[in-house]
Amino acid sequence: MANIIYGMFNVATTALITQQKALDVTANNIANVNTEGYSRQRVNLEQNEPVYYEDGILSTGVQAQQYVQRIYDQFINAQIAESESELGRWDAELETLEKVELMFDETSGYGLNDALSEFWNSWQELSNSPDGYTERATLIADTQNLTEVFNSLSTSLSEVQSDTDLSITSAVDEINTLSSEIADLNLKIAEVEAGGYSANTFRDERDLKLQELSALIDINSFEDADGYLTVTTANGNTLVDRANSWELTTNTNADGFQDVYWVSSTGTEENITDDIRTGKLKGWIEARDETISGYLDQLDDLAATIIDAVNTLHAAGTNLDGTTGTASGTNFFTGTDASDIAINTDIEDNPNLIAAADTTESIPGGSENAIAIAELQNSLLMSGGTSTIDDFYNALASEVGSDVSQAEVNSEHQTTVSLQLSTYREEVSGVSLDEEMVDLIQFQSAYNAAAKLVTAVDEMLQTLIDMV
């Protein structure tokens, strides 16, 4: 009889311990209902091993499995990481190109279109009064405005490239930090799970780190049987292997910007810049090296064409001193592209050096050269003789707007995809307060019942002792 009573006492005790563990896990779920990346946990209950008693088997109660189950969908998390990588790329590109778009937005301020228009109009006004000081001074002032706008656009575009270059360097540092943290979490997970316990908290943290890493650079990852996560770049260079991590670094390229390198365990550096396909690094690299560089090339082409065309005509004309531009040694413009285009300082100091007349015209009064230069506005000088200077610039401004629009559309699409995947993950791994409250009541009731069972068994034992 005493053995049966003590067996019942053991059943009640294990029931209390088991229900307490279930309550603890439920409470943890409720506490982390708003914690980013938290995966709902569940205690799985099972019967204790029965014992043989006389001619039968005696049940010994309930126990909680040592390993707390993590409600988790590995496939969904892999999709989220991939989506975050694409989103990171387009967000970075959009962020960069929106800065550029402001430079070409002339709806609320003075821009290159206005400066070009004033420049051509000043030559036209000069042709109406070729020896007028006011017209020559106005032309000089409008030319200064034009060159300053070119210079400013070129400088601003270069500054955006430099800012983007700094973002790339910072991203590389962040990648190194995340890789190191994932390697540390690998070790913690392996050590905990080697003892048969669950490392759910560390696994949730590692998944978040992996998601952050994916947003920066495209990666591949897989987990081995020991719980270690291996992470590689898209082209196969290892970032994390078991408890070890490898670093990325940057080195200056021929254009003065930073390329991304993978550093091997022996210190050898491999340039992986061209192998990066998604993530913020891809967005910044593409914007810096291709998109903005293309804008600068077109802006330089535009400035160089204006310099060459105007200087060619100006050199063939005659100034108020009666000498041609070539004979007097005065080109109208100096410089070679948008970064250094400027009006000749000799002309700034002496407006009479402006060659408004043709060599066949009398001085003063000749205006054919000024008319010819003004007509450059309508000449097909750009794109292999298929577009005017104004059309070429307008096409450039439209290209900027189109690139921004494309980046915005892609960013919005990837944002939608990421939100859908996150919603699905919440449905699988997220905490439902309604469900947890039901479980809380259920486990609490079971705990109270087990406590009453302890009391009942204690009374039975006391009765037995009194009988003896």
UniProtKB/TrEMBL annotation:
Name of this chain's protein: Flagellar hook-associated protein 1
Keywords for this protein: Bacterial flagellum, Cell projection, Cilium, Coiled coil, Flagellum, Secreted
Residue ranges occupied by any Flagellar basal-body/hook protein C-terminal domain in the UniProt entry: 427-467
Family: Belongs to the flagella basal body rod proteins family.
GO biological process terms on file: bacterial-type flagellum assembly
Domain Flagellar hook-associated protein FlgK helical: 97-326
GO CC, alphabetical: bacterial-type flagellum hook; extracellular region
Alphabetical list of Pfam families matching this protein: Flg_bb_rod, Flg_bbr_C, FlgK_D1
GO molecular function per UniProt: structural molecule activity
Gene name of this polypeptide: flgK
SUPFAM superfamilies noted in UniProt: Phase 1 flagellin
InterPro entries: Flag_bb_rod_N, Flagellar_basal_body_rod_CS, Flg_bb/hook_C_dom, FlgK, FlgK_helical
Domain Flagellar basal body rod protein N-terminal, residue spans: 9-38
Coiled-coil ranges (or none): 168-195
Localization of this protein: Bacterial flagellum; Secreted
Record keyword Nucleus present: no
Source organism phylogeny: Bacteria, Pseudomonadati, Thermodesulfobacteriota, Desulfobacteria, Desulfobacterales
Species for this entry: Desulfosarcina ovata subsp. ovata
